[in-house]
Amino acid sequence: MINRQDQELNNEEGFREIEITVFKYNPQDKASKPEYQTYKLVETPGMTLYIALIKIWSTMDHHLSFDFVCRAGICGSCSMVVNGKPRLACKTRTNEFEDGKITLLPLPTFKHIKDLSVDTGNWMNAMSVKVESWIHTKEKTDVAAIEKPVEPDVAQAVFDLDRCIECGICLAACSTKIMREDFVGAVGLNRTARFAIDPHDERTDEEFYELIGDDNGVFGCMSLMGCEDHCPKDLPLQTKIAYMRRKMVKV
Ligand code: SF4
Ligand code: FES
Q1: Does residue 8 carry a pLDDT above 80?
Q2: How far apart are CA 190 and CA 54, in angstroms?
Q3: Which of 51, 62, 59, 39 has the alpha carbon at shortest distance from 94?
Q4: Strand (E) positions, the chain?
Q5: Which has the closest alpha carbon to 222: 182, 161, 177, 187?
Q6: What's the pLDDT at 222?
Q7: Ligand 2 site, residue 78, Cβ cutoff 6 A
Q8: In a mutational test of the pocket of ligand 1, which residue from 123, 161, 187, 228 has the highest number of ligand atoms less than 8 Å from its CB?
Q9: Considering only CA atoms, which of 112, 129, 229, 241 is closest in space to residue 185?
Q10: Other C-beta atoms lying within 10 Å of the C-beta of residue 19
Q11: Measured between alpha carbons, how far is 56 from 64 in angstroms, rounded to an integer?
Q12: What's residue 147's pLDDT?
């Protein structure tokens, strides 16, 4: 499919033409069959996959489904598999692909909604409940009281792990998650490490063990590094999984 306007722009400006092949399927529609559809468009300077998809959607295929919110690598909505690797569409430039051929698939391991759209939200919510992703303290909260001081390096370590945007890319890149449905993945283990480091959380290692001390938790990780290699926020996932594993082994 070639958009006529694009064809003219191509001729006038000399920009290259790229081909984006997209997996299309609607599991809600009984008549729908999984298929690939290829769209040809003109690559403009600085084009990201997000911009390319918007262009396809607005000029060629208004039925194409994909997710996005922020366009800035913050919301974690636009993750998809790009030429075999899970990535954020809004942070991936089309000019990275020398031959101009890009294939897009929905993120595996999550519920498929339609085309490139998957439901990461419900999974993330269930994971948060499973690892009890909140501060556990017996202290009564007094909003008028001055906050307890925290050592700057500890605050920095907590902040570093809090940068997770729940994009699901670490799960899509994880062999354990593909084999083991209930594995909490690097995102869940990172979350437990975040609270284990935080001095506001009074949980003991034994209490963390109850949450992640099995093969669906910290002992399921095979250290294949797929999570850390693909995490768009460069979180120190393997270091923190090892940190939690050392703690859990001692229990
Ligand atoms: S740990 Fe990284 S890859 Fe995993 S959900 Fe968080 S930001 Fe995404
Ligand atoms: S649209 Fe928010 S991370 Fe890509």
Answers
A1: no
A2: 33
A3: 51
A4: 17-24, 35-42, 79-82, 85-88, 101-105, 111-114, 117-119
A5: 177
A6: 95
A7: yes
A8: 187
A9: 241
A10: 14
A11: 8
A12: 84
Output the pLDDT for position 114.
98
Residue type, 90: C
Quick check: CB of 64 below 6 Å from ligand 1? no
At a CB cut-off of 8 Å and minimum separation 6, what does 11 contact?
none
CA-based R_g, the chain, Å:
21
Q: Is 138 exposed, middle or buried, given 0-12, 13-18 or 19+ CB atoms closer than 10 A?
A: exposed
pLDDT at 12: 59
Q: Residue 203 class from Cβ within 10 Å (0-12 exposed, 13-18 middle, 19+ buried)?
A: middle
Residue with tokens 């768009």: 232
